[in-house]
Amino acid sequence: IVHSYDVNCQYCRKIRTRFEKHFPDIDINTVKFVIPKWHASAHKEDCQFLYSLYFTPGVGCLDGEAPERNWAILNLVSTSAREMNTAHQHELLEDHMNDINFGHMIALGTFFLS
To answer: Which domain holds residue 102?
Structure first.
């Protein structure tokens, strides 16, 4: 499991104790904490090395920024979602994320034709 977050160098300091307290059956040693590539340059050199996606085996060309690209789109529905109950919020967000993914699939056709 790879956990990508822009402040993972701070976030994962006490993660072991948090997991032992709240999720005792999950092995935290199976989680690799990384900093997304765009955010890494703002960190100290030791953070850049320890949490870099460049030095993480098995992630390929992942940049760790994909979830943030969708925030701009999903923020537009937040006003509507605010008035809904939790189940409807979940349904609304899932519907919009499915639409984003469908758009990506359609764009792949053009990409492969070029």
So the answer is: 66-113
